[in-house]
Amino acid sequence: MKPAFVAALVVLAFPAAAWAGQASLVVREVPLQGERALAAATAPRFDLVGLHWRGPGSVSFSTRSLSGRWSAWRGAAPEAEDAPDVLTREAAREASWRLGSPYWTGPSDGIRYRLRGPVIRLRAYFVRSSAVAVPPRTLSIAGSPLIVPRLGWSANERIRRAPPKYAPALRLAIVHHTAGSNSYRPSQSPAIVRAIEIYHVLGNGWNDIGYNFLVDKYGQIFEGRYGGMDRNVVGAHAQGFNTGSVGVALMGTYTSQAPSAAALRSLEALLAWR
Questions:
Q1: Which CATH architecture has domain 147-273?
Q2: Which CATH architecture has domain 23-129?
Q3: CB count, 10 Å around CB of 201?
């Protein structure tokens, strides 16, 4: 028997919002009864979306740009290991949910869902994070390449849930991609990092943004998790391997295309320094 398959738009009237610096988060329960949606409407204005669900089924989604164009359908599930280490308080906060990747859509105002198999509960996290005209400041420490510090991308230090933890030594580097659109401008990159921060912390319940560093397609390097760029901060990006690793995320989706030359040059310089 084939699994059930449905598509729906979620009702998002009177959303509950949380603010983090220049980014805001709207959280809504998608009205489900078993595997059937009960209502349909438009979403709030957003730039990034992530989905959480309960049940062994899977979820995919499509988003609508402000111009009215719908995107291709994409799966909501992240790589299984993109998470804090098991048996930690950070991992336990949302242990009963499957946590979707934070997907940068750019300015959008609509979303559709498809559910395959048993999904008994579905929750949507919409982040609005606007670009600013002022270029982020950069710095270099101890021979590092130029890096945009947390202050430069307007990290919200008030939402961090716990002090950083440190590994005694750095053994390896793990390179990810963030998922999301590759069509972004340099001025939008700080907004993308802010949006991922608010989703990881206020959505997933993690202590801070999961990655240690992020690199955009223009070669800009951003400091990620708080604790010191030159220290062995334990992140939440590679379950079972977070301690003793540095996690670097290339901003965008690189399953069917290669990262830009600028991104690869910056990645090489960053890893050579760390």
A1: 3-Layer(aba) Sandwich (3.40)
A2: Sandwich (2.60)
A3: 21
Q: Whole-angstrom Cα distance, residue 250 to residue 245?
A: 16
The token pair at 12 is 């998002």
Between the alpha carbon of residue 152 and those of residues 20, 125, 146, 222, the distances in Å are 15, 25, 12, 9
For 108, other C-beta atoms within 10 Å of its C-beta total: 25
Burial of residue 98 (CB within 10 Å: 0-12, 13-18, 19+) is buried
Q: Is the pTM of this model over 0.85?
A: yes
Label the pairing between strands 36-37 and 213-215. Answer: unpaired
Structure tokens at 243: 């301690």
Burial of 105 (0-12, 13-18, 19+ CB in 10 A): buried
pLDDT at 31 exceeding the cut of 70: yes
Residues in the chain: 274
- pLDDT band, residue 78 (cuts 50/70/90): low
Could you tell me which of 66, 77, 74 has the C-alpha nearest to residue 113?
Answer: 74
Give the pLDDT of residue 212: 98
**Containing H/E element for 193?**
helix 189-198
DSSP-assigned letters across all residues of 60-102: EEEEEETTSPBPPPEE----TT-SPPTTSHHHHTTTTSEEPPP
Contact 200, 124 (CB under 8 A): no
In a 10 Å sphere around its CB, with 0-12 CB exposed, 13-18 middle and 19+ buried, how is residue 59 labelled?
buried
Nearest to 50 by CA among 214, 203, 249: 203
Residue 18 predicted with pLDDT over 60:
no
Residue ranges matching CATH 2.60.120 in the chain: 23-129
What tens digit of pLDDT does each residue of 83-120 get? 888 878 888 777 789 999 999 999 999 888 888 899 99
Amino acid residing at 40: A
